[in-house]
What does this fold into?
Amino acid sequence: MGLRQEQWTQLNIPVIIEAPRNKHRSNLLFVSPGGMFVPQDLRLDTGTQLVVRFKVDGNSVTAHVELRRMLSAAAAQERGIQYAKGGTEMRIIRMEGDGSQLLAEHIKKTIMESGGPA
It folds into this structure.
């Protein structure tokens, strides 16, 4: 049985992921209503609390997330993430910043255009 498929939005933006002991950088981020995905193996334990910082339309977003699981390329595809590599899936705990409302509205619009939640 596969994982539930969600509607993911790809953002081609610089992203900083702050882990307890170091920072990771990416130029690609996928977001869904409940999670985020970066196509990198962050090599952290499940449940690790992270802070993800990026900008949407020039407005900053700070997302507090929890590392959920590592996904292989096939598992990411099953999950609805249209990318050829695996990576790290994170669960959103809360978002802050001026851009968080813009991002939330964009996600809502994407979901409604796709026919509603899965």
In short: Residues 98-113 form the longest helix (16 residues). The chain has two helices and eight strands. The longest strand covers residues 59-71.
